[in-house]
Design brief:
There is one protein chain. The chain folds into two domains: 58 residues, no CATH class; 125 residues, no CATH class. β8 and β9 form a beta hairpin. It is built from eight helices and ten strands. The chain has 199 residues and is of the alpha+beta class. The model has no long low-confidence stretch (mean pLDDT 81). Strands 6-7-8-9-10 form a five-stranded mixed beta sheet, sandwiched between helices. A three-stranded antiparallel beta sheet has the order 3-4-5, with no helix packed on it.
Length: 199
């Protein structure tokens, strides 16, 4: 797969094909210190693909499954905080449009370190999303710390938790929680019995 780097902002952005990792220091588009990769679609436009938090060889070996991303988007949009229903009922339809969940809202963490850095950053906009392994987290409150938790099982996604991670990071058990979520079965998730020990 060919990857592209973005070299300027706005509608006049320039995308150049990535030839070597030495190109990274030249590009404008970085997040959390990691270069942002784009792919070219059939219509000639560019789509955000992922942040390069590991080697290109690794990303090629474990490509992003767009069908899984679409499944997470569909499942998340059943949530009234994410699909804008709550904002509309509160008399703020423009907010619902501004923060609508779309493909560009998704960040992809190939390593645990990047996932942790993402949550440590804080002050996330509503509907910012991150995918790590078979998990997906979507922010439900603008500037908040209330994450919808979803997980992919074989051919479908389920939504089963709403979690805050600020205190888990402070307590030092954030990694344990993520490991428990990764190891949980579908039945454990649905029954909210995925935690291996009580907090």
């Amino acid at each position: 797969m060919d990857y592209y780097l973005k070299y300027s902002k706005g509608e006049d952005a320039v995308y150049r094909k990535l030839h070597a990792e030495s190109d990274f220091h030249k590009c404008w588009s970085c997040s959390l210190g990691y270069p942002t990769l784009f792919i070219k679609k059939e219509d000639g436009t560019f789509q955000y693909y992922c942040h390069l938090d590991t080697s290109i060889d690794y990303i090629d070996q474990f490509p992003i499954n767009e069908n899984v991303v679409l499944a997470f988007m569909k499942k998340a949009n059943e949530n009234p905080w994410i699909n804008g229903r709550v904002s509309i009922e509160d008399g703020d339809p423009l907010s619902a449009m501004e923060y609508a969940l779309n493909r560009n809202k998704f960040t992809f963490a190939h390593r645990f370190k990047v996932l942790k850095e993402f949550f440590e950053h804080g002050n996330w906009a509503q509907n910012e999303a991150i995918v790590y392994r078979d998990l997906c987290f979507v922010q439900q409150i603008n500037g908040g710390d209330e994450w919808l938790v979803m997980k992919w099982f074989k051919d479908h996604a389920i939504s089963f938790e709403s979690m805050s991670f600020r205190f888990a990071l402070k307590r030092g058990d954030f990694e344990d929680i993520i490991n428990d979520l990764c190891n949980a079965t579908e039945e454990q998730c649905k029954n909210l019995e995925w935690r291996s020990r009580k907090c």
